[in-house]
Amino acid sequence: xxxxxxxxxxxxxxxxxxxxxxxxxxxxxxxxxxxxxxxxxxxxxxxxxxxxxxxxxxxxxxxxxxxxxxxxxxxxxxxxxxxxxxxxxxxxxxxxxxxxxxxxxxxxxxxxxxxxxxxxxxxxxxxxxxxxxxxxxxxxxxxxxxxxxxxxxxxxxxxxxxxx
Length: 164
Fold this sequence. Notes:
alpha+beta; 164 residues; 4-stranded mixed sheet; Immunoglobulin-like
């Protein structure tokens, strides 16, 4: 009986190893791997781990980026709140002017669900003195980075940038 059990375990172990390998390969592609940016000529030549870092600084009431033009592909936004109140940082792909994004009815926030905007990512609740980051795969086009805490966008917390 021990020989029979050993013979039965080998195919199960091999099958489990194969399933594990397939699952790990699928996870390693990461979010957005099938997006157009990942398959375009400019986005795919960067290689694993490569990309562009954009440093964003938030204060009352301003968003500053250390780069306003970046190459298409993987972009990491390092966001630091140098202000005295909580801020957030949201990136939209849009053809709208930076100061003319659609707002939610009766609110002084940008309507993040409006079809003219494509949210590329965000960090919320960035406390004073704190830093947070996120990474997105960006295609060529026009983008706007904003703080969408109530009233902050209307107070001027927005900046355009271009992805080439």
